[in-house]
Amino acid sequence: MKVRRALPADLKELLQLVHSGKLFALQDWIKAGKPLRCPEGAKLNAGVLSAAVETGFHSLVEELLRAGGWSPSDLGKALEIARSGRRFDIAELLNHHGARPKPSDFQTSCDKLDLFMMAHHLRAGTDPNRDNIFAQALSYMKARPLLGFYRQYRTEFPALEDQASLALAETVKNDQARWTALLAWAGADPFRSVPNDLSGIFPVDAEDCTTAANEAIWRNNPEILKALHLKPTPAQAIAHLSTAGYHDNFEVFRTFLAVIPRDQINNTPRASCDALERMVSRWASRNLHTNARDAKGDDENLKCVELLLDAGARWNPPPEDLRHARRNILQHDSRYIVQLLRLLLYTPNAVNIPSFLELCHSQSIRAKIIAADMPLARELQDLRKAARSANAADAAAKKETVPVAEQAPAAAS
Questions:
Q1: pTM given for the model
Q2: In whole angstroms, how far apart are CA 28 and each of 22, 34, 49, 61, 140?
Q3: What's the pLDDT tens digit per position in 83-126?
Q4: Domain count, the chain
């Protein structure tokens, strides 16, 4: 049986100085060359360095470490005390002087909120995006120390930005307004592309990803939208504009539209506005529970269309999209259809006229227009006649300019 020896009187005095936090007296003790370490097998197995760490007095620990001579066991015990007491500043100090932590994986470190070991793992090459461990900790634990860790190390380890943004998207999906606000305050980017859930991988697939902003717009939860306090760049606003309009977030839509310069609103290769194309071809709004038409949603869409047109948006979709747009428009009642068509037709330079006439080239749409707005029906008829005359004139002009040698020979008599 191992016998524990009583502490010498001088080391009892030293421990008393440490417990009392008497820094200057400790400095004098060290200068005088007095002993700092307890003898092996001392009573209570007391350790001066560990006792200093327990006080949490950073300068006291630093003085003892500068004195040197500490064994790996002394340093290791002191490091465990610092980590368990969440004094990660002292843990860093001990690590700098040679203390080595016991092995543990990154997930365990996150679960225990061991910020020192988390940083240790990242500096050793752990990829924060692997298995989305940090995002899961942020999503499930909702611990403020993790926010502090993210803010402290986000510049040193940029992948933490992916993890925080993914956690933000998950929090938005779960309608957790308070944690959404805290993540946004910490700097999580609501416009950063992330996987659709925590099981996804980075880098993301551009065709199969989401953003916290997009999830918030889809859910249309005012508390969440307020918590995010969205401030998009013009490019981000353009990317999310049609989603905002589709889901009747008129105020968010107006906020996004306000930051888009007029010369950037028509963002497709056809000098057309992608958001306007999507909103023109929007299907009728319906109540999710009763499947009844939602007139409020349709009215919101028309307001958004009007704002886009006032901002200089043009409608010139690819020809192959016209059939799809026509089919969706037909889901609406006659009143909505004529309002939409009038907005497009009567905004100067807003539409490609041949595409517009093709959109209306349907017996079903014509019937709805005639039922609700006969003057508009007659105007569309006049536009078609004018288009046919223009086409005939163009064809004649082309025929006249064909060289004589290229014209077909006259029939023999």
A1: 0.69
A2: 10, 9, 17, 15, 50
A3: 777 777 887 787 778 777 665 678 888 988 888 889 988 988 88
A4: 3
